[in-house]
Amino acid sequence: MAFAFLNGPHKLTVENTKIKGCKKAFELEYDREGSDIELKNVTFEDNETDIYLKNDSSTPANAPQVELDEGTKDTAGAITVEVAYPADDVQITTKTTGKDYQQNLKLTGKNDGWLIGYEKGADGEYRYLTQRKGDKYFGLNTINATATTGEGDNVTTLKPYAQLKEGTPVNLTADILEGKKFARWKVEKVADGTPVTGLLDAETENTENTSFSMPEYDVIITAEYEDESIVDPGTGDTDYGGDIAAGVVIGGIAAVGAYEVGTGLYRILAMDDVAMPTNRIALAKLLWERAGKPEPESTALYSDISAEDTDAQKAARWAVEQELLNDAEDGKFHPAFPVSKLRVCLTWENAKQKGLFD
Description:
It is a single chain. The protein is mainly beta. Helices cover 13% and strands 34% of the residues. The strands form eight sheets. The chain has a five-stranded parallel sheet with strand order 1-4-7-10-11, with no helix packed on it. A four-stranded mixed sheet has the order 17-14-21-19, with no helix packed on it. It has a four-stranded antiparallel sheet with strand order 16-15-18-20, with no helix packed on it. A hairpin with a 2-residue loop joins strand 12 (114-121) and strand 13. Helix 2 (280-290) crosses helix 3.
């Protein structure tokens, strides 16, 4: 039983639907006048085949195509696609432009010896049928990451859904995403979405750079991220990247929405347009100099600041004594630890409220 059978010049759109327990959930037959089907937020469950494309045996490249949105999925893992007459470069999905998501659509071919590849050009991206190179070749796709093989001058960057022979060494590098920090790798089989453990190198599996040997199945490996945060080792306070929450007021300046705009305005209007310090010692020296270089009460020196840099030693000790910055738990100052623009603004405002300077 099929949920939908399309034969002839028709346009069918299916939205917000779960299709369950069908032999062929969708069966599309090629017609020279064209038949189009669009699936939006459709969920497949327990179907023998999710999408069956019946093309022309004499010209198998003339296959019907389906438009899938990024919300369409199969509860078991990948959407299964079968082509009546498989051939290289048979186009599976219609080209889409303006929004990159098709690479991440989980599709798997039901035709033995064939994979569903990915192509992107100036006129859009789409998925297509491609023959396996051999019995021991399997597909690899990475999301938010770059995969390479080889070493030295022989390094090759892999394209999406590259075919690799079982046992091929692969190196992974997580992409740099603004405002995000790497959290973990997610490894899963394409066919059924089964989570995979133990594939990545044990010593590096929790880092942005790791490696593995190609397994005997098609696999998707995703670099997952969390919102970036900077934790001051001397305060335990956390500055979260991105926008300052709407309504935050620093010294009477409302930084609504834009992080750069809010901190930039504060620097110009409240800090006399000084250069923004980027680490703890630069911030301490800026505050100390603004306050007139007062002598700290203690003469104890920080072991991680040069004893010969008396200004840095005094600035750090004074900033800690005024409770603008704190010692770290190990008793050191950690002068090179980065500080965010928001932390600079908040600390400057704190010093003003304490009456340390106007």
